[in-house]
Specification:
Layout lengths: L1 E10 L6 E11 L5 E11 L11 E7 L2 E8 H116 L4 H16 L5 H107 L3 E2 L6 H6 L2 H45 L2 H50 L12 E2 L1 H134 L1
Keywords: Coiled coil
InterPro entries: HmpF
Length: 586
């Protein structure tokens, strides 16, 4: 099984020997995932003897023994981190897809609800239209019944007219007979009683044969009332048709204008989307540049930290080793030319300053020793303390360790300062003794390693790196501010885009709703245009028939009046003829 392990090296003897061990940190499972190894599991690792202490390695372990070679973990960790980054990107893209699916499902749900509401409204309108169609059918049935009634009246009128024509034929026959009898009466100059009675009976029959028109006229008037009522309803339907046509044309104009507005808004939204995508690409480029700058800052910080650690180690070596010295720039020629008394005074002052610094450094060393003892005592207390007390002791231990580290770092510079002062004092003493004629034995300074130039060079490099780091950090800060502004602008553009998209969606929904309403209006207009003309034509035909019947009825009325007038004249003639013979006989 593969393990991620840390190389541990321990000294085994006074001559520099060491033992290599591997601390198992994590193991790889069958599903290629990694899990931490609990506890401190350590196995022998002589196979990793060529690796440095603290290095990470990939090993194949079976039965606490290493199988195969020990592989440095750098490449494998980079591959794992790269795969992990890919998985994060894939998970992020899947989350975005899920969010898009959620938004799509939400939009589909809203669309289904809107369609359902539209269908319900459409059903209500269809029901209203069905009711109107039923009313029109009822009106059509009423019209048919009126038409049937009109046909019945027309048939009755034709029958009455035939009876009237028969009566007229009979009247004309009686008229001829009357004319013949009148001629006979003129010839005979008198009538018998039987002839008078026959003529009276004939005149009575003619009077009763006159066709009555009151009943027919009353029914005709009722038919005209029904036609007028239907015509009034039909006029209302025509007016409704005109109103609906005007409303449909107006709404159609609004729909066309709104469609143009929606098209324009879509173009604007596409431009906003393009600008948003370009801003996203630019922001991605800036982020990549920022990551590269941050990586440069990180590497430079690590390099600066390494130089500082090296500087501290060299300074510590210079202050703790007798074989190392730190050279100081002293003007030897000026000391040679200086009066001897002044030189002695300078040497005394330097000696006093050195003693004062030595006392201060010794005090700091003593305080550092006490601080180290305090840290060790707290560590012993933590090892023997309960779980409850350990928390507070660990916090106190962290504070003491920080204090110890700060004091130790301060002493590094003070020790170096002490060594520098010793070096300056030694150079002054050598010049003073030489001028006093005191010979010195072999100087041991020639055998010491001079770390001064190295420390100065490291200091210059540190200052240069700090300047470069400060410059890079300023650039990173400026890039962060620029990215922050770009993100704010991008967020604002995204908000504006969402607002425009929402407004466009609402406009499209309203447009579809208006389009549906206009379609229903046009369907009603077309339905009325299909139903009203035949109904109007039928009413016009019935009115023409009724007008013809009324005209014919007026003619019949005139004929009947003329017939009654003729019968009255005939009665008067008969009466006068009946009275004439009596006058003649007398």
């Amino acid at each position: 099984m593969l393990y991620l392990a840390e190389v541990k090296k321990q000294k085994t003897g006074p001559f520099g020997g060491s033992k290599t061990e591997l601390k198992l940190l994590a193991c790889q499972r069958n599903d290629q995932s990694w899990s931490a190894v609990p506890g401190d599991e350590i196995i022998p690792g002589d196979e990793a003897g060529g690796m440095s202490d603290g290095a990470l390695a990939i090993v194949n372990v079976s039965n606490n023994r290493i199988q195969g070679e020990v592989e440095p973990a750098g490449t494998r960790l980079a591959s794992i981190l790269q795969n992990f980054s890919r998985l994060l990107d894939k998970a992020k893209s899947q989350e975005e897809e899920i969010e898009q699916w959620k938004q799509s499902l939400t939009y589909q749900s809203q669309e289904l609800n809107r369609r359902e509401m539209e269908m319900e409204a459409r059903l209500e309108q269809m029901q209203a239209m069905e009711e109107e169609v039923e009313q029109i059918d009822q009106q059509r049935q009423d019209l048919e019944s009126t038409k049937e009634e009109t046909e019945r009246l027309r048939e009755e009128f034709d029958r009455k007219q035939q009876e009237l024509e028969g009566a007229w034929e009979h009247l004309r026959g009686e008229q001829r007979r009357w004319d013949e009898q009148k001629e006979q009466l003129q010839q005979t100059s008198g009538l018998s009683e039987d002839d008078v009675a026959a003529m009276q009976e004939l005149l009575d029959r003619l009077s009763t044969a006159v066709a009555p028109t009151d009943t027919v006229r009353e029914q005709l008037n009722q038919a005209f009332d029904i036609i007028d009522q239907q015509q009034s309803e039909l006029d209302s339907d025509w007016q409704k048709l005109d109103n609906q046509r005007q409303q449909a044309e107006q709404r159609q104009t609004e729909i066309d204008e709104q469609a143009e507005d929606i098209h324009q808004r879509k173009q604007e939204l596409e431009q906003v989307q393009t600008s948003y995508e370009e801003a996203q690409a630019e922001l991605k480029v800036q982020r990549n540049a920022l990551e590269m700058k941050q990586e440069s800052v990180h590497l430079l910080s690590l390099q600066l930290q390494t130089h500082q650690e090296l500087h501290q180690e060299l300074a510590r070596l210079a202050t703790s080793s007798a074989d190392v010295k730190i050279s100081q720039e002293v003007d030897i020629q000026a000391l040679e030319n200086m009066p001897l008394g002044e030189l002695q005074e300078i040497v005394q002052n330097l000696q006093q300053d050195l003693e004062r610094v030595v006392r201060f450094v010794n005090d700091q060393e003593e305080e550092l020793t006490f601080q180290r003892q305090a840290v060790e005592e707290l560590q012993d207390k933590i090892n023997n303390a309960s779980e409850y007390d350990r928390i507070s002791l660990e916090s106190e231990l962290a504070d003491e360790q920080d204090r110890y580290q700060m004091l130790d770092e301060t002493l590094v510079g003070q020790r170096r300062n002490l060594r520098e002062r010793e070096e300056i004092l030694n150079q002054h003493n050598r010049v003073l003794r030489r001028r006093q004629g005191i010979s010195e034995g072999g100087s041991t300074d020639t055998h010491k390693i001079d770390l001064g130039p190295v420390l100065n060079q490291l200091e210059e490099q540190r200052q240069q790196q700090e300047s470069e780091l400060e410059k890079l950090e300023n650039q990173v800060e400026q890039m962060r501010q620029s990215i922050s502004q770009a993100e704010e602008m991008l967020t604002q553009q995204e908000s504006e885009q969402e607002t425009q998209h929402s407004e466009l969606q609402n406009l499209e929904e309203n447009w579809h709703s208006m389009k549906q309403e206009v379609a229903e209006l046009w369907s009603q207009v077309n339905l009325y245009q299909e139903l009203l003309p035949p109904k109007q034509e039928a009413l016009n035909q019935i009115r023409q028939i009724l007008d013809a019947i009324a005209e014919a009825l007026n003619q019949i009325q005139e004929v009947g009046d003329y017939q009654l007038q003729a019968i009255s004249e005939m009665r008067q003639t008969v009466d006068s003829m009946v009275e004439s013979p009596e006058l003649a006989a007398s």
